[in-house]
Every structure is written in C-alpha cells, then in structure tokens.
Amino acid sequence: MNLEDWRSYLLSFPASIEDMPFGPEALVYKLEGKMFALLAWTEEPMRLNLKSEPNLALHLRDTYPTHVTAGYHMNKRHWNTVKLTAELNDELVREWVTHSYDLIYNALPKAVRMQLENSNP
Which residues make Cβ contacts (< 8 Å) with residue 35, sequence separation at least 6? Predict the structure, then answer.
C-alpha cells in the first residue's frame, strides 16, 4: 500500500481524524483525542507506530524482528513501530491497526462509545 492507501485506511475507522502535532512528516490518527496510529512517511520504508497490548507487542517483536520494533519515541511497553515493506503482508498490518484502534475505543467512557455508535450506523 502507498501513502494515500494507508491514509484512507486509517481514516476509515469511525470518528478517526488525521492530525500533524509533530510536523508534516508524521501523520497522527486519533479517536476522541487519543492517538491510535502515527504514520512516518518521509523516509523509505514508511513506518507506522501502533498501540498494542503489552504481551502482544512483545510477541510481534519476537515474531517479526526485522519489521516490528519497540515504538520509536513512544512508550516501549505499549507501542510498536512497524516498517511497511513489501515483505510484510498488508492484511496483517491492517489487523494490528484494528487492534490499536480497538484499544483506544474500548478505553473510552461508555457514554462516549454509545454516542459514537449512535452517530455511525
């Protein structure tokens, strides 16, 4: 997937917004003000920081050591940096993105989740 494909995918999640609080070289994707992804796109390969459950984060680093590392400039326990190369299956990365989004979504207060569900049929 190219930059525009990833941008479209990351914005396809309900209530997802794109922001650039760290400058134009890092596209940040948020849900209700909470970051679930950061896409560093100015170098090859692009890199995607994703939130993860701590045990899964370690498992992914062990399973894909050339593609998944501890989150760059992030909490190493909860974030991974994924190198988006042709060798790494895009569908697999999309599953990790969904996991990251779900962690943020499920941590929202119930009232906020209900409001989001009612606004996105």
Answer: 28, 29, 51, 104
Rg (C-alpha) for the chain, rounded Å, is: 14
> For the whole prediction, is pTM greater than 0.90?
yes
**Per-residue confidence band for 63, with pLDDT thresholds at 50, 70 and 90:** very high
Residues 82 and 48 sit within 8 Å (Cβ to Cβ): yes
DSSP 45: S
Single out the residue of 103, 95, 86 nearest to residue 51, CA to CA. Answer: 103
Instruction: Give the mean pLDDT of 82-95.
Output: 95
8 Å CB contact between 66 and 54: no
